[in-house]
From TrEMBL:
PROSITE patterns, per the entry: ABC_TM1
InterPro entries in alphabetical order: MetI-like (IPR000515), MetI-like_sf (IPR035906)
Keyword ATP-binding annotated: no
Record-given protein name: ABC transporter permease
Taxonomic lineage of the native organism: Bacteria, Pseudomonadati, Pseudomonadota, Alphaproteobacteria, Rhodobacterales
Organism: Antarcticimicrobium luteum
UniProt keyword terms in alphabetical order: Cell inner membrane, Cell membrane, Membrane, Transmembrane, Transmembrane helix, Transport
């Protein structure tokens, strides 16, 4: 009879302090919401350290621990925060039940090379925790805005009805106001009229500039590249002020064409960077072969080069479109009341009207941005497959 493989157990001095640290982090959020972050840290660390030691020495069953912790945290969440606390408590309990045994049974090293030292393992997970914390810090404002856009009242804060998850506290009134209000619809029309044309100009000029600057025989390639991508580096207020003084001299200030050119200038750097990155893996012998077969430069570009760099061109165009659609500083300087775009209307609503419709518009823009970024990611993966950098 074959001998049973012993199960590896990590020392108590390792997994209990780590679980306690995670509990302190969770306690910080809960305690801050209740008015005492320090008390939350201490209570969270002590509670999770005691639970981690108890479940691994007494229960020794991960499934039972998950259900038990979930039930315990659900009860605590209900007492502290009502229905929202109940939901968060269930999530916290389930996570800590898994996290405790993930550390206790040493599963955290299952997918890591065996030769890593404890310090390297620590840095491996510390780096991921830091990245996750930064992501949460960036995403949290968006996650707060989205439910607030369904507020039944004209408030920018969560009402007691919303916190109780009462259906009466939620409404689509702000979305209806956006789709029926003439000012918002005019701003939307202006944005839709400006952003696509600016994107078309950005893609046209940016693609040609990237192809030209990718040629090795072009002199002063680096200085020219630095100048073309400078709108991404120079503070936007400086670019806007410079455009205002320049456009006022040539008669473009306050015109539709002036706003389009300004947004095109802001979008060109994104197109140049994405197309240049795509051209890194481009086989230039294909264009020489097309020339040897009698194809002129225009035919070579559209029939040979463009299909291969198309993912980079579309990605740059999407970034240019997002930049134009969301831009507000430049249009305030070079535009007029007739070119009031959607971000401009949002800025006006914050400064003058304090309209909660802004939250609904922000949620719609977030949804559009997510869709466009999803397309960009799909195009990036397709580009890598075409260049042989990833499996099909």
């Amino acid at each position: 009879m074959a001998a049973l493989t012993p199960i590896y157990r990590t020392p108590v001095t390792f997994y209990v302090p780590v679980v306690a640290a995670a509990g302190a982090l969770a306690g910080l959020f809960v305690g801050t919401a209740q008015g005492s972050g320090l008390l939350g840290i201490v209570a969270g660390a002590a509670l999770m350290a005691a639970l981690a030691l108890a479940v691994t020495r007494v229960i020794e069953s991960e499934k039972a621990t998950r259900w038990g912790m979930a039930a315990l945290f659900v009860a605590g969440g209900w007492l502290i925060g009502g229905a929202p606390g109940l939901i968060l408590g269930a999530g916290f309990g389930w996570f800590f039940g898994w996290f405790t045994f993930w550390l206790y049974e040493g599963r955290y090293r299952a997918k890591l090379p065996t030769y890593l030292t404890p310090g390297q393992v620590l840095w491996h997970f510390t780096f991921r925790v830091i990245c996750g914390a930064i992501l949460v810090f960036l995403i949290t404002p968006i996650l707060v805005v989205m439910p607030l856009s369904f507020n039944a009242e004209n408030f920018f804060t969560f009402t007691p009805e919303m916190l109780r998850l009462d259906p009466a506290g939620y409404s689509l009134k702000h979305y209806r106001d956006f789709f029926t209000n003439d000012d918002w619809q005019q701003a939307l029309r202006n944005s839709v009229m400006i952003a696509p044309v600016a994107t078309l100009l950005s893609v046209s000029f940016g693609t040609l500039a990237a192809i030209g600057l990718s040629a090795e025989h072009v002199p002063f390639r680096r200085p020219i590249m630095a100048i073309l991508i400078s709108p991404m580096i120079v503070p936007l207020i400086i670019s806007a002020a410079g455009m205002y003084f320049f456009y006022s001299r040539i008669g473009l200030q306050g015109t539709y064409f002036g706003v389009v050119l300004a947004h095109a200038a802001l979008g060109i750097p994104f197109v140049i960077i994405t197309v240049t990155a795509t051209l890194v893996g481009f086989d230039r012998s294909l264009t020489r072969a097309a020339a040897n077969m009698g194809a002129d430069p225009v035919t070579t570009f559209f029939r040979v080069q463009m299909p291969l760099i198309l993912p980079g061109v579309i990605s740059g165009g999407l970034f240019a479109f997002i930049t134009s659609f969301d831009e507000v500083v430049v249009v305030l300087f070079v535009g007029s009341a007739g070119q009031k775009t959607l971000p401009w209307q949002m800025f006006t609503g914050l400064r003058e009207q304090i309209s909660p419709t802004i939250l609904a518009v922000a949620t719609i823009l977030v949804g559009i941005s997510i869709c466009l970024l999803t397309v960009v990611e799909m195009l990036r993966r397709r580009s890598e497959r075409l260049r042989g950098m990833s499996p099909g």
